[in-house]
Amino acid sequence: MEIQTSAIPLQHITDAVTKKHEINLFVLRLDLNHPHISGNKLFKLKYNLEEARKQGKDTLVTFGGAFSNHIAATAAAGKEAGFKTIGIIRGEEHPELNPTLKFAANCGMQLHYVSRDDYRNKNILSFYKSLHLQISDCYLIPEGGSNELGIKGCKEILQNISVDFDFVCCACGTGATLAGIILSLKNNQKALGFQVLKGENYINKEVHTWLQTFKYVPKNNFKVEESYHFGGYSKVKPELTEFMKRFEKENNIPLDYIYTGKMMFGIYDLIEKGYFEKGKTIIAIHTGGLQGNAGFNKRFGYG
Ligand SMILES: *Cc1c(COP(=O)(O)O)cnc(C)c1O
Fold it and tell me: In the β-sheet with 190-195, what is the strand arrangement from edge to edge?
């Protein structure tokens, strides 16, 4: 699965806030990198699919919640690359599939529902057994596509960036994308991660562990912002949805509720607080996730 990183749009934002604070803000539109395998998930899948093929596997098995961007992306990538796909979904089966699962099923993904407890234990051998799968046919991709090969793919997100930047920002669920970005930084550059789940020092620790795996010693060149999760994963507040609407209207860039909305809110809050010096250049990575908005709007009545 080749990714044309040079074709990914880098959109310059010039609104009242960036002008007032003299900040050069760009949004790297990974949400536009593929019609169905959007955002960072395409980068995370790239080397995993290559490895699955190398190992002669014909089936991709993975995990996720019912609104998971990773489930949707894996289903579409499997269809495109000629793999069978199996999604093990956390929670109960509902009579009507939500838009994410409908999309995955339409791509040919077999969906299996497991209780939250079984999901947490992720006993893969017992899943294989109950689904009558041959281990030798299956390539396992962890939740979120977050493994070493996923991070290797994320190292390529910034490879064709045409502007010299000081900061790069991304939203963090597992921290794998942030780890890949850190691995690709130049000496004068810093990465900022925006944690979308509750938990003190959670992503920071995960990222340090990933960096160790790659034998990389961070040089004080990244920070995880922990105060923009709005109450936790998939939690929102009116302040956030209002910001997202305004941002989309002014800049013609849609954001998702779970990840990119929170990151962008955090970036603007930091700009307003004077966190970035005048004249600095920031790249905000739009990691995609827009497929999840349809289900979110339906479930929570936003939109
Ligand atoms: C999965 C996802 C993330 C989080 O990526 P991690 O590598 O798990 O931190 C961020 N943004 C979007 C839109 C995602 O789908």
Answer: 10-13, 24-29, 281-286, 167-172, 190-195, 222-225
